[in-house]
Specification:
The protein is of the alpha/beta class. The chain is about 40% helix and about 15% strand. The protein has nine helices and eight strands. The chain has helices at about 20-25, 40-50, 75-80, 105-120, 135-140, 160-165, 185-190, 220-230, 235-250, and strands at about 1-5, 30-35, 55-60, 85-95, 125-130, 150, 170-175, 195-200. Helix 6 runs parallel beside helix 7 and helix 8 packs across helix 9 (about 235-250). The chain starts with a strand and ends in an 8-residue tail after the last helix. Nickel (II) ion (NI) binds near residues 6, 8, 36, 92 and 202.
Length: about 260
């Protein structure tokens, strides 16, 4: 009973076998998946996958790395998708200052503000990507105190995690939590209240140990679950159940029957 709260099955890495990989997930213990989009084309693909697989849900929006083509007129399409029952969040949105060739910071911030305003208008949660942009991220989020979100692939400090929790946010960990150099993530994973934690793969990226470097899919979220369970002194089953319940509550998805 695992909930992979962040995976990109629209990615080209899945072109050879997307449907085989997805069809296998339930028998591998994965009960739910959220697939965020990163621009209009991938958001459309996410919505389509969500319609094809009962256990897949979609989020729609522009990722900071791919937000160059964004125009405010795109909000109409995003708003239309959000009326769909299988669309449960706005995302993947955020700020990414890591790559020099990323869209200009002012454009990223403008795109982000539009998406946060949409989330506020529609009362939908957001899936947030933040890389090397902690200061601007927190400044902008404080301007939208009614928006709830999840900080995906959390890489910040314990202090930042605590501040997000105070703002009503969730913290989510990928396979990075299993890496040897993940000391900061482990500290944050230990400090956040258990009911605010979620787990994810960010497939096809971020495969956990012992699969690091390979293409990731949702079945590997079990390794992140095991690591988080160890950090929190829980059994893997307890950790899987709690993080699934947290994800269902956050995204407004009814929990699947426990079999
Ligand atoms: Ni992602």
């Amino acid at each position: 009973m695992l909930f992979d709260t962040h995976a990109h099955y629209d990615a080209e890495q899945f072109d050879p076998d997307r449907h085989e990989v997805l069809a296998r997930l339930p028998e591998q213990g994965v009960s739910l998946v959220v697939n965020p989009g990163c621009d209009l084309a991938t958001s459309a693909a996410a919505v389509e996958l969500a319609h094809r697989y009962p256990f897949v849900y979609a989020a729609v929006g522009y990722h900071p790395e791919t937000c160059a083509p964004y125009r405010p007129s795109d909000l109409e399409q995003l708003r239309a998708w959000c009326r769909d029952d299988k669309v449960v969040a706005i995302g993947e949105i955020g700020l990414d200052y890591y790559w020099e060739e990323n869209p200009p910071r002012e454009h990223q911030k403008a795109v982000l503000r539009d998406h946060l305003a949409l989330a506020q208008e529609l009362d939908l949660p957001v899936i947030f990507h933040n890389r090397e942009a902690h200061g601007d991220t927190m400044d902008i989020l404080r301007q939208f105190p009614r928006v709830r979100g999840v900080m995906h692939c959390f890489s910040g400090s314990v202090e930042m995690a605590r501040e997000l929790v105070k703002m009503g946010w969730m913290i989510s960990f990928t396979g990075v939590l299993t890496y040897k150099n993940a000391r900061k993530s482990v500290e944050a994973a230990a400090a956040v209240p258990m009911e605010r934690l979620m787990i994810e793969t960010d497939s096809p990226y971020m495969a956990p140990v012992p699969h690091r470097g390979k293409r990731c899919d949702s079945s590997l979220v079990i390794h992140t679950c095991e690591t988080l369970a160890r950090i929190r002194g829980l059994t893997t089953e307890e950790c899987a159940r709690i993080t699934l319940e947290n994800g269902c509550r956050f995204f407004g998805i009814s929990a699947p029957e426990i079999s």
